[in-house]
Fold this sequence. Notes:
15% strand, Rossmann fold, 30% helix
Amino acid sequence: xxxxxxxxxxxxxxxxxxxxxxxxxxxxxxxxxxxxxxxxxxxxxxxxxxxxxxxxxxxxxxxxxxxxxxxxxxxxxxxxxxxxxxxxxxxxxxxxxxxxxxxxxxxxxxxxxxxxxxxxxxxxxxxxxxxxxxxxxxxxxxxxxxxxxxxxxxxxxxxxxxxxxxxxxxxxxxxxxxxxxxxxxxxxxxx
Length: 191
């Protein structure tokens, strides 16, 4: 599929990374509790738009702070529950959050860039077609994750020249989630 001529319809799925896309990334550390979680500007508005476009929206997130013993599965679950609730209260939607607690050194099939979380989403939602999916994230492992499954990859980065450094991995670049959402709204195909 040519990413330049997207025609988004009700067959499409959106996969999103969390830290650095939905909430502010804590450089050199982890979001270990809800009081550390800060939505990035425009994110709640973006989810309101995206909920009207994509029938399925999933978050796929590496959370190796659990594997390091810095936080627990229960703490991550609470952060995700509150994130989903706040997005829903603002008129948006996340259908499911998947995360991998494993350390990078564990080489888990669930940890991005491996495709385990996407395969789990497809198991839970059999209608998911990866070739009619977008992966939006802020890291190269997000782009590799998407490309392994033939998704269209979207870098959420203020650095528009990033695509030149990673030719073939990044299909589109947007400075933030709201700009991405507005562009997707302009590409909805009405049957």
